[in-house]
Structures are given as structure tokens and as C-alpha cells.
Design goal:
Blueprint lengths: L1 H20 L2 E6 L3 H9 L6 E6 L12 E5 L7 H12 L4 E4 L13 H13 L1 H16 L19 E3 L6 E2 L2 H9 L10 E6 L10 H12 L3 E6 L4 H8 L3 E4 L10 H11 L3 E2 L2 E6 H6 L6 H13 L7 E7 L5 E5 L1 H19 L7 E5 L15 H14 L11 H11 L8 H10 L3 E4 H7 L6 H11 L8 E2 L2 E4 L2 E3 L2 E5 L22 H12 L5 E5 L20 H6 L4 E6 L3 H10 L3 E5 L4 E3 L7 H12 L3 H18 L1 H5 L9 H16 L1 E3 L11 H11 L7 H22 L7 E2 L16 E2 L10 H21 L7 E6 L1 H7 L2 H10 L1 E5 L5 E6 L2 H4 L5 E6 L1 H6 L1 H15 L7 H15 L4 H8 L3 E3 L10 H5 L7 H11 L2 E3 L5 E4 L3 H6 L4 E6 L10 H18 L4 E6 L7 E4 H11 L4 H7 L4 H20 L6 H12 L7 H8 L1 H16 ...
Parallel strand pairs: 1-2, 1-3, 3-4, 7-8, 7-9, 9-10, 11-12, 14-19, 14-20, 20-21, 21-22, 25-26, 27-30, 27-34, 30-31, 34-35
Antiparallel strand pairs: 5-6, 5-8, 12-13, 15-17, 16-17, 18-19, 23-24, 28-29, 31-32, 32-33, 35-36
Helix pairs in contact: 2-5, 4-5, 7-12, 15-48, 21-22, 24-39, 25-26, 27-29, 29-32, 33-34, 36-38, 38-41, 41-44, 43-44, 44-45, 45-48
């Protein structure tokens, strides 16, 4: 009986505990830590327990009294959905807050309970969260003991002005202003700054970082107006009338009013800054090479860019609070620097142009290479800009009166010099008056202007400051052209060594000391108020390390500092513009591409065209056969059969004749550029008409409008640059060449990208499927109906943006996988296409990604990896994906990998640059032909440099030798997208770099030359697949061998001439990477056109006028192609080419490029083709450039240290007609007043006197002995 009593008591106590005393348990599922922390902090006492759980722990929810789920971004699999349905059915109270997918709303609260919980959460803040927990205990759990009465939800307006005081919340701006003016420290007359918060905001999260931002911007001199709003943002901005908006972003600036907001920002010229908050701990962010990705990248970076927002610099991150939740904290030094950036930008508005100091960086190869920029004739464009700036009141002193004089000034005072050109450097140091940065100055800047760890990286690579490159004494020379308050600087070589010039697309290695010194001199000595990078593109944005959301340990962030940054960029290269925008905090100002036209009917092909027309029209079979024979004979004579792989020794079928006809039509209608574009100069009437007609081919009614947009753009570009340099707002724009995307006009706007999470778009999915089917049909037609087993594909950012992911769609469809979209249109998952519906085997895919695509769309690379895993899991006998994964696993085990690692790496199919590099790192190697003997060496370098995997988790950037090779095994074809009408397979070096490099790697791994195709998106109405050899031949005939193209380019200047040189280099690059696509006869034709000028186009006169160094480069490339055995010219052609090259070098001096100056084997080969006189002049010129005279600091040549800008201004103030050498001499003469200088001057004078006496003695002896022997 006693036992029964004890049991009863225990049961009673247990029931009492459970029903009256036990803590109420509330689960927070999928809530962000910052919001969960705010709810936990509002807990009214120990009798309410709040636990945060992730979606992987749904099984633990049984027994909770209330389950709150955060529905935004919620993703659940079928098993998790079943768990929640069962839980709801068993009576557990569930409320899903803000579900973005209605199918995942498992809310079972109803009536007043649902309304109350929704009200508490909707209004947020400490009070409402506390009442929510009181309500959960007293009302939902039904416990009265230790329960506080729950008050109704307190309505908190969602659109308010607020202050640092929690109670300072206002719906009326006047009331806020009255309150603000009563606060200590308020000052009238300060520029007003609107600080817009979003997620996290001041009410749904801890507000430490928001309060810190308010204080930082106040300390920077602003009258800060903090705003927490969603529906009334634009209305509030109109009331505030700010000088600038700082938007702590999560999505669009003014949802539902985007166009209206853009018009208001433009009309009132209000810049929008969008600093970043990291949704992870600071330590993890610093270590993560990605920074931002996926939906967070979309909401924090991509969508704000649609509103014209700039400067996505991290100012806050998370740290753990006392409960273990990740809450937000400002990063004080970064926030202070960001406030300074905003202050410096806004200050430009009030600053007179005459007082602004502007640093302009231009891009230039080594030596006498022309200034280059994508689509731009650089020297006339830069000269036009400087004249425009002077007209706008900028102090531009010492600008030469002529463009030719300006070009000479740039080459003499603003060169880049390769480390091999010691003689050129000696001459530069003596005569160009470079700025000097001492080792002591660099050490002082390290730790102050630049993180010490970055200086340590530079010292580890190049030795202690100032290093050896461009060094004189203990100083490093900084090339610059001072023009009063404007200074022009060549962007220094970002790397030196074996790959000097082609490191432009980044290297994990630190840039050399001259690179560092140039930017720090600009900031700390010249003290620029703004910096302008002139043209597409430089290298700053491609220096290491993090991809988006950089830290101070990343070179672009560290070097640009807090300077306002403007970047002039071609409208046609939106992919790389995004890297400049996001990694160097640039405001992009777009400019036009060159005018575009069709290749046109060439006279050399007229007879063939007439014959084809006659053949097609002939009704009589016998007559048609005769025409067919004549067509074939004429086509073979022209070499056109080689373009498309038709036989020379067998009659052509009707299908082959139609193939030739299509090739000829493609050649006639190929879109080509008509010269380059000059900033501020409208197209000619013919250029306007031709470009507008091509734009409006499918919309003829729009042609007048297009023509007007093209005509107005040059003036708008200059106005946009003026405004950006005055701290104004640059309206946003999509990008792409005008034929691909007419909406990118007018130019003079800030380019933006697309939301990667929505790719492939529905339309891109259809295009990708169509091209995949074309690709497979081509392969089957050439391989007796066999399906390919594996396809290797390149992903590039520009094509990805412009086609909305069509190549991604092509990849997914080859695998037999299709996207699954959520209600907002984003690709939320993947679905396996059943084998029966697919109608073919699944094709294995290997993807190489450019660094730009990797940065912009990391989540799409994860999507590909998931698709591979899904496809490999399909149980089908002909599943090439499964077969490829199994084969890779076996191969990796054979290489010695542990079974678990072999299995993990076997399905890796996305590869890219190691260490986060943007390029392959092989172009410099390819073009330094004396440093490799076999293309296998190039292939091995490529396989290493591009062998990093890019999958989720620790597979991001992982490198394991052999994995890339295992993935490429069995590859049948290589595919490359092409989406711009301004470049093609041979006019852009990155095509041979990526596609050619991948092809060479496949050949190295498999021993077979894979088929190669372009996915050609250049005609949006007719995307197509082109065989690589045919595409290359098509571009060569439409450009290099087309008199109309040559004549249009010959009307240009040095940059136009350099375009030919780059194209020759690229043809050579293709020879190395995939010899089968470059017919030897192409080099014969180039020899005839450019060495012999067989077409009578006056090409030699053009190069002599515009840029003789370009023709030096072209002939050097031709001779290197011959030396390497890719071109086999006859003896006469070889001698002609060598003589032309040697004559150019002897008369103009060596150009200083790698081909001309830095290839010892090529120099010897050229010398061997020359007679004694020509060889002597050639070798003397190279000797002067490469060796010259030593720079001896003991003989009085010491660079003047630029401790202030007085030296720069003094140099700029020399007479406009003075040569740089004269100006430098004058400056040195004025500075020789110290005893040391006097002693140096005396020494030099004595030495010169002795040399003069010696010379006179030699002359006297020669005359004396000459007279004695004169009778012979």
C-alpha cells in the first residue's frame, strides 16, 4: 500500500511538473542565428526554453510545445516533408514564418493563436519577442505557474527613421530631424547621408553593426539619417534629399519601384554605396577564398548593382555571443575606411576641377608596345579625354599640342620595361625622370597603407624592398607622366619572371615591388583625389586572392585603399567588368565597341560565287555537273576546301557543295569591326548606318532609334566620366556588344550582371538543348552514328551573362539532367530526365571554368557537380557518365590514392585555375618558344595550372595531381562558347589559351586529337555550332585577309596596328595548341599580304606611320612559327620576312617585347637568314635595348625621391615643346645644389674632359697615319 502511495505521489508530482511547472519548450528551426539570438535574449525566465535547430534535426522536434520555422529559403527533401506532416498531425504546434514556397507552409496554428504569433514575429524587437514567449507558455502550453501575462503584439512601423537610442523611432522625417538636432554633437551644414538598413536591420537582429555604422559616418563628417524601411524607402529618400545613400543591402533598393528609384537617383545625382555584411564568422570569411556565393551573392551584390550601387566592400561580420549564436559586429578599421571612401567620393562634388588630383592608369605591354584596351584606339582616346578634362577646368599642364607629340611623350616617359631590357631601363632611368620610392618609404608604408603580411609576401617573392626589378640604388623607379594635377601611369607588370606579360589575369603570387610602389605613390605622394583606369582592362582587379567580399589581405582591396575609383570599360565585356567592379570597387563607365559591319563580298571570291549560283540554278543535270566541277576547281584553287574539310581528290556531293555555299555566305555576312573606337568621337555616317542595320536586322522599325542611340553615346560617355569624377551617380546598364544586346545602349553607364541563381533561364534551357542536339548530330554524322562518350566544355562569364546560362543548359542536357525551379523562377534543384524521354545515352562532361565565371556563379559549378553525381547514379547500361566515374576511380587508385579519396575525386568534373588564378598561366610559356621543346611540356603545365577542382565544401579549389587527367580520359570533343561580335577565335588570345589549352591537354591525356567546336551565340536569332577549324578560317578570311577590314583598320593608329600583332600571336598560339586547325597555307597568305603587300594595300606605309613595332612583332611571330616548324616557307619567303624584321629593328630600335627581345633562339635564327650588313644593324639594336650601358649610381645618376608632389608638378611645368630628356635634364640641373651633387658634377666633368682629350688624340693619330698610307 505504501508502495502504491509512493507511485501515486510520484505520478502526481510528475503530472504537476509536466502540466504546470515544466519549462515551455520552443524550437526555432532554420532561423538565422542573428534573429534566433534576439529571440533567445528576450526569454522572460528559466521556465521558457528556446532551442535553435537546423533542418537536419527535425526528428528531435517531438515534445516541443511550439515549433517556429523560418520559411524564407527553406528547402526540404521528401523525408523531411513527411516528418513535418507527421509532427503536425500528432498535434505539435507549428508556425512557418514568411514561407517563400507555399508547399512548405506546415502551419497548423489557427484563429487568434495564429494571428498573435504572426503579429509578434512580424513586428519583432525585444518587446514583441518577449511577449511571444509569454504567449507560448501561458496560452499555447497552458501553464499558469511562472507564466507572465502575454500582452498583445505591439505594432512597430516597418518604415521608420531611427537613431542610436532604442526609443528614437519616427515615422515622420521632421520629427526625426527635430530629435536629431537636439542630440549632442549635431552640426548644421554637414552633407546628409541616408543609411538604409535591410537584413539584418535594427529590429530583427542585434544592432551593433548598425550603430557602429552610424557613428563611423558621423565621424567622417556626415549628417546621418538611418532608415529602416521596405515599402516607403523611395518616399523617405525624397524627404531626406541626401548627398549619398549607403544601403546595407538585401535585394533591390526600392522593391516594386526600381525604375522610379533609378530615375530619382539619376535626376538628383545621388551615388549609392552598398557595403557588405558577412553572414559568417570573421575568421571563416578571412580564410574563405570565395567570400560570397549563391543566394547571398545575389541579394548582397548582384541585385544592388541593378540599382547602380557601387563599392561592395565588407564592413561587418559575425562573432559568437555568450549563447553560441553568431551575431553581427562591425569590423572597425574596414568600416572607418569605407566611411572615408564615401566621404572622399562626396567631397569631389564640392571640389573645383582645377583642384582635383586625378591619377589615370593605362595598360601597355613592355617596351615600345602600343597602349591597348579592348575595342579602343587608346592614344587618341586618352588625348581626347585630357583635352576634354582641361576644357572642364582640370589643371592639365604640359600636354603636347599634337596627338603625335603626346604619343611620343607616353612612350618615352610612361613605358613598361621587361626585366630583360636592361639597356632600355638604363635609358629610361636617365631621361624619363621617373618618380622614386625608397626602400625606407616602402617599409614605412608597410603596416600603415598596406597590411604587413602583404609586404612580407612581396619580400618573400622578390626580396626585401625595393627588390631588384626597376631598381636604382635603394629606390624603385615608378614610371609616370606628370601633367599638372593629372598624372598618367602605365599599369606596371603584375609579375616578373618566365611569364612576365601574360600574368595580367592574376597570380596567387604577390605583385612585384614596382607594382606596389606605383599605387602607394599615387595614394601617398601624389595624393590622388580619384583614380581612373583607362580601358579594358588592367590587372589590379585580377591580383590575388579572395573572389568577392575582399579583406585587407587581398591585393585589390589593399592597393586601391579609400580612393574613389572609376573604370572606363567596353560595353562588350560585361563579365570582366564585374570583376573590376566587385574586386577593385570601381564605378564602371561603359563605352561603345567599334562600329560593326558585314565582311562583304570579296572580289577574290566573285567568280566562285557566280559559279555556285549557276550550279544551284541549273536545271539540266549534265550542265549542273559541269558547274559542280568548275565550282570544285575554283574552290580548291582558293584553298577554301581546307576551311571546311572537303576532299581535293574526289568529286563533291550536292551536300558538300551546299556546305561550301553556306561557308561562302557566312564569310560574306560575317560581322567584323570597322576599325577601333575613339572615345568621344561618333561613328562615321557609314559606321552608324552599318551598325544600326545589323542591330535591326530582325526589327527594321527600330533602326532609326538604334542609330540615334549610337550617335549620342560618345558625348554621354564623356559626360558620365565627368560626373563619376565629380562623385555623382552613374545609371546602371546591362552589357554586351550592340548586336547581341541593343539594350546596352546608350553607353556611359555602370554595367551589371545577372542573377546566377536563375540560370539557366527557361529560354536559355531551350537554346542549350538545341545546341547540344546540334553538337551530337555533328559528331554522329562524322563517326558513323556513334554517340560521343565525353565532352569537355569551357565556361566563360561574358557568354554566361549574355546568354543567361545557355552553355550551362547545354552541359546539363548532355548529362541528361534538367533544372527544377522554385516559385520565384530560381533553379532550386535538378531532376534526372528518364532515359526513355532523353532518347539517347547520357554523355559525360568535363568543365573548365574561367576565374571570372567562378567568381560570378560559384553556385552553378555546384549545380554541375550535383548533376554529374545524379547522372552517374542512373542505372543504365549505356550510361557514359557512370562509366567515366568508375574509370576515373580505377585510374586514381592506380596512381596511389586511398580508396576513399579516389572515390571522392572520381566524380570531380569542374576544374579551374589553382590558387584562385584567373588565367591558365600558359600564354607566356607558349609565346616564349625558346623555353620549351615539345608541346607536351605546355600540356603538362596546363594540366597542373588548371587542375584545381571546384565543387562544394573542401572540394572548392582542391588540387590533387592526376585528378584532372583522370577526368579528361576518354574525351571525344572540346566545346567553347563565343558570344561577342567584336572578337573571334583568333582575335582574342584567351580563346587559344582556354579552348586550345584544353584541347592540348586532352591530346596529351588520350593520345588523340579531339574534335573541337564553338557554340556560337553571336546571332541571337540563330545560335549554331561551328567546327573550330572552319570558324578560324572564316575569321581569318573575313579579317586579316579581307581588304575591306585591312583598309578600315589602317585608318587607325597604334592600337589598331597592335590588333594585327595580337592576332598573329594568337594564330601562332593555335599552332602550338591545336595545329590541325591552322592550315600552313594561312601563313603563306599572311606572308603575301603583310610582308610582300601583294594586295597593294599599303600596309607597310600604315605600320611605318602608326606603329612600326607592331610589324616588328608580326614578323617575329612569323619567324618563330617557322623556327618551330609550324610554318614551312620557301627560302625566299623566309629571307624576305627576316630582312623586313631586321630592317625595322635596325631603323626603329627593338620593340622590347618577348618575341623581339627575349627569345635567344629566335634571334639567332633570324640572324642566320641575314647578310652581314643587315645582321650587324639588327644585332646592334638588340644589344642596345637588352644590354645598353650600366646604370651606375656612383656616377651621379640618382633618382629624385618624390616626397611631395612639387617634383611632379615641376616636371610637368616644363615647356610643352621640350623633350622628356630635356625636361629631365633641366630638373636634374636645378636640383644639383648639395655638396654631394657638386662632387658628382665635378667628377663627371673631369671624366668628360679626359674622354675629350683622348678623342682628340685618336683623331690626330688617325689623320697622321691616314696620310702616310693614302696611296694604296
Amino acid at each position: 500500500m505504501l508502495g502504491g502511495l509512493v507511485v501515486a505521489v510520484v505520478l502526481t508530482l510528475g503530472a504537476g511538473w509536466r502540466f504546470w511547472l515544466a519549462p515551455t519548450r520552443v524550437a526555432l528551426v532554420h532561423y538565422p542565428d542573428f534573429q534566433a539570438a534576439r529571440i533567445v535574449q528576450a526569454r522572460p525566465g528559466p521556465f521558457v526554453r528556446v532551442d535553435a535547430l537546423d533542418t537536419g534535426k527535425l526528428a528531435e522536434l517531438r515534445g516541443y510545445d511550439l515549433v517556429l520555422m523560418f520559411g524564407r529559403g527553406l528547402a526540404l527533401d521528401d523525408a523531411q516533408r513527411a516528418q513535418l506532416r507527421a509532427l503536425a498531425g500528432a498535434g505539435t504546434r507549428i508556425y512557418v514564418e514568411a514561407p517563400t514556397n507555399p508547399q512548405l507552409d506546415y502551419t497548423n496554428l489557427a484563429g487568434p493563436d495564429r494571428e498573435a504569433v504572426a503579429g509578434y514575429l512580424r513586428n519583432g524587437g525585444p518587446y514583441n519577442y518577449a511577449q511571444l514567449l509569454n504567449y507560448a507558455r501561458a496560452r499555447l502550453d497552458g501553464k499558469r505557474l511562472f507564466a507572465r501575462a502575454a500582452q498583445p503584439p505591439r505594432a512597430v512601423p516597418h518604415d521608420v527613421f531611427f537613431g542610436l537610442d532604442d526609443e528614437a523611432v519616427f515615422t515622420d522625417f521632421a520629427a526625426f530631424q527635430a530629435w536629431r538636432q537636439r542630440q549632442p554633437g549635431w552640426q548644421a551644414g554637414r552633407p546628409r547621408l541616408a543609411l538604409l538598413t535591410s537584413v539584418p536591420g535594427p529590429f530583427n537582429a542585434n544592432r551593433d553593426q548598425v550603430d557602429a555604422a552610424i557613428r563611423a559616418f558621423e565621424a567622417a563628417g556626415f549628417d546621418v539619417v538611418p532608415i529602416a524601411a521596405m515599402q516607403r524607402r523611395l518616399e523617405f529618400l525624397r524627404q531626406v534629399e541626401p548627398a549619398a545613400v549607403v544601403y546595407m543591402p538585401h535585394g533591390r533598393l526600392a522593391p516594386g519601384q526600381a525604375d522610379e528609384a533609378g530615375q530619382w537617383l539619376t535626376r538628383h545625382d545621388v551615388p549609392v554605396f552598398a557595403p557588405l555584411t558577412v553572414f559568417d564568422e570573421e575568421s571563416k570569411w578571412r580564410a574563405d577564398p570565395r567570400g560570397f556565393e549563391g543566394g547571398l551573392l545575389t541579394m548582397s551584390v548582384t541585385l544592388p548593382e541593378l540599382d547602380g550601387a557601387i563599392a561592395p566592400m565588407v564592413i561587418a561580420a559575425q562573432e559568437r555571443d555568450e549563447h553560441g549564436f553568431k551575431v553581427f559586429r562591425a569590423l572597425p578599421r574596414r568600416l572607418e575606411r569605407y566611411a572615408a571612401r564615401v566621404r572622399n567620393t562626396v567631397a569631389l562634388r564640392a571640389m573645383a576641377n582645377a583642384d582635383k588630383k586625378l591619377a589615370i592608369y593605362y595598360y601597355k605591354g613592355p617596351g615600345q608596345s602600343a597602349l591597348t584596351a579592348g575595342d579602343l584606339e587608346v592614344v587618341p582616346s586618352l588625348y581626347a579625354l585630357l583635352r576634354h578634362l582641361r576644357a572642364q577646368g582640370y589643371r592639365v599642364d604640359g600636354l603636347p599640342d599634337t596627338e603625335a607629340g603626346f604619343a611620343r611623350l607616353l612612350q618615352e616617359r610612361g613605358p613598361n620595361i621587361g626585366p630583360y631590357a636592361k639597356g632600355d631601363f638604363a635609358d629610361f632611368a636617365r631621361h624619363a625622370d621617373p618618380a622614386a620610392v625608397s626602400a625606407a618609404q616602402l617599409r614605412q608604408w608597410c603596416g600603415a597603407s598596406l597590411a604587413q603580411v602583404l609586404c612580407d609576401q612581396a619580400a618573400q617573392r622578390y626580396g626585401p624592398a625595393p627588390g631588384d626589378y626597376l631598381r636604382i640604388g635603394d629606390q624603385v623607379a615608378v614610371a609616370r607622366v606628370p601633367l599638372g594635377n593629372v598624372v598618367l601611369l602605365p599599369q606596371p607588370l603584375p609579375g616578373i619572371g618566365e611569364d612576365t606579360f601574360k600574368l595580367v589575369h592574376g597570380t596567387q603570387l604577390a605583385p612585384p615591388w614596382p607594382y606596389v610602389a606605383s599605387y602607394l605613390w599615387t595614394r601617398n605622394v601624389f595624393k590622388a583625389d580619384a583614380i581612373l583606369h583607362f580601358g579594358t582592362h588592367g590587372s589590379l582587379e585580377f591580383t590575388p586572392r579572395k573572389q568577392v567580399g575582399l579583406s585587407g589581405m587581398d591585393w585589390p582591396d589593399a592597393l586601391i585603399g579609400d580612393m574613389p575609383h572609376v573604370y572606363l570599360y567596353t560595353m562588350g565585356n560585361v563579365g570582366e567588368a564585374m570583376i573590376a567592379k566587385r574586386r577593385s570597387y570601381a564605378t564602371i563607365v561603359s563605352h561603345l565597341t567599334p562600329p560593326l559591319r558585314e565582311g562583304g563580298a570579296q572580289s577574290a571570291y566573285k567568280r566562285l560565287g557566280d559559279l555556285l549560283q549557276s550550279w544551284d540554278a541549273a536545271a539540266n543535270p549534265a550542265l549542273q555537273a559541269e558547274y559542280a566541277r568548275d565550282v570544285q576547281s575554283e574552290a580548291i584553287a582558293l584553298g577554301l576546301h581546307r576551311d571546311i574539310g572537303l576532299p581535293a581528290d574526289a568529286p563533291w556531293t550536292a551536300a558538300q557543295l551546299h556546305q561550301l555555299d553556306e561557308h561562302m555566305e557566312s564569310l560574306e555576312h560575317a560581322r567584323i569591326t570597322a576599325g577601333l573606337y575613339t572615345l568621344g568621337t561618333p561613328y562615321s555616317d557609314a559606321g552608324l548606318d552599318a551598325t544600326a542595320r545589323l542591330m535591326g536586322r530582325d526589327r527594321p522599325q527600330a533602326i532609326p532609334s538604334y542609330r540615334d542611340l549610337l550617335a549620342r553615346s560618345p558625348a554621354l560617355e564623356l559626360a558620365a566620366l565627368d560626373n563619376a569624377l565629380a562623385g555623382g551617380y552613374t545609371p546602371p546598364s546591362s552589357g554586351g556588344d550592340p548586336l547581341v544586346n541593343p539594350d546596352a545602349l546608350p553607353t556611359g553607364r555602370n554595367l551589371y550582371s545577372i542573377d546566377a541563381e536563375q540560370t539557366p533561364s527557361t529560354q536559355a534551357w531551350r537554346v542549350g538543348r538545341q545546341l547540344a542536339d546540334q553538337l551530337l548530330a555533328r559528331h554522329r554524322a562524322e563517326h558513323d552514328g556513334a554517340w560521343p562518350k565525353k565532352v569537355a566544355v569551357t565556361l566563360w562569364a561574358g557568354d554566361f551573362i549574355q546568354t543567361e546560362g545557355a552553355t550551362l543548359a547545354q552541359i546539363l542536357y548532355l548529362l541528361g539532367v534538367e533544372p527544377v525551379r522554385d516559385p520565384s523562377g530560381r533553379v532550386a534543384g535538378l531532376r534526372l530526365i528518364p532515359r526513355a524521354a532523353l532518347g539517347r545515352p547520357r554523355i559525360d562532361v568535363v568543365v573548365q571554368t574561367s576565374g571570372q565565371l567562378r567568381d560570378l556563379a560559384a553556385s552553378r559549378l555546384y549545380l554541375i557537380e550535383r548533376a554529374v553525381t545524379m547522372a552517374a547514379g542512373a542505372q543504365e547500361d549505356d550510361n557514359a557518365v557512370a562509366q567515366g566515374v568508375a574509370a576515373a576511380e580505377r585510374q586514381l587508385k592506380e596512381r596511389g590514392l586511398a580508396p576513399a579519396d579516389a572515390r571522392r575525386y572520381a566524380s570531380a568534373r569542374v576544374f579551374g585555375g589553382i590558387d584562385g588564378n584567373y588565367g591558365t598561366g600558359i600564354m607566356g610559356m607558349v609565346e616564349a618558344g625558346d623555353r620549351w621543346q615539345s608541346d607536351a611540356e605546355v600540356a603538362r603545365t596546363y594540366l597542373h595550372n588548371m587542375g584545381a577542382t571546384f565543387g562544394a565544401g573542401d572540394m572548392w579549389g582542391a588540387f590533387q595531381p592526376g585528378v584532372f587527367e583522370a577526368a579528361l580520359a576518354g574525351t571525344d570533343m572540346v566545346v567553347q562558347p563565343i558570344g561577342s561580335n567584336t572578337w573571334g577565335p583568333i582575335s582574342l588570345d584567351h580563346v587559344y589559351e582556354f579552348m586550345g589549352g584544353l584541347d592540348l591537354a586532352v591530346r596529351q591525356v588520350t593520345g588523340r586529337d579531339p574534335a573541337a567546336y564553338f557554340s556560337d551565340y553571336r546571332d541571337p536569332a540563330k545560335p549554331t555550332v561551328r567546327e573550330a577549324g572552319a570558324a578560324i578560317a572564316l575569321e581569318a578570311r573575313a579579317t586579316l585577309l579581307n581588304p575591306a577590314y585591312v583598309e578600315s583598320m589602317a585608318r587607325g593608329g597604334a592600337s589598331s596596328a597592335e590588333t594585327f600583332a595580337e592576332t598573329f600571336r594568337n594564330v601562332y598560339g593555335w599552332n602550338v595548341m591545336k595545329p590541325s586547325v591552322i592550315q600552313p597555307q594561312l601563313w603563306d597568305a599572311l606572308y603575301a599580304a603583310y610582308v610582300r603587300d601583294a594586295g597593294g594595300l599599303g600596309v607597310h606605309a600604315f605600320f611605318e606611320r602608326a606603329n612600326p613595332y607592331a610589324l616588328q612583332e608580326m614578323t617575329a611571330v612569323m619567324l618563330e612559327t617557322a623556327r618551330k616548324g609550324y610554318w614551312k616557307p620557301d627560302a625566299q619567303a623566309l629571307r624576305d620576312t627576316a630582312r623586313l624584321h631586321a630592317d625595322l629593328v635596325a631603323r626603329h630600335g627593338a620593340s622590347g617585347t618577348g618575341f623581339v627581345n627575349d627569345n635567344a633562339a629566335l634571334r639567332a635564327f633570324i640572324a642566320g637568314q641575314l647578310d652581314a650588313n643587315a645582321r650587324a644593324g639588327y644585332e646592334d639594336a638588340l644589344q642596345r635595348a637588352n644590354e645598353g650601358g650600366a646604370i651606375d649610381t656612383d656616377k651621379g645618376l640618382v633618382l629624385r625621391k618624390q616626397d611631395d608632389v612639387g617634383g611632379a608638378s615641376q616636371a610637368a611645368a616644363q615647356p610643352a615643346g621640350a623633350t622628356p630628356a630635356q625636361a629631365a635634364q633641366a630638373t636634374r640641373t636645378e636640383s644639383t645644389t648639395s655638396p654631394t651633387n657638386e662632387r658628382h658634377a665635378a667628377s663627371v666633368g673631369l671624366l668628360l674632359g679626359l674622354l675629350l682629350a683622348l678623342a682628340l688624340a685618336i683623331v690626330w693619330l688617325r689623320r697622321r697615319h691616314g696620310g702616310a698610307g693614302g696611296g694604296r
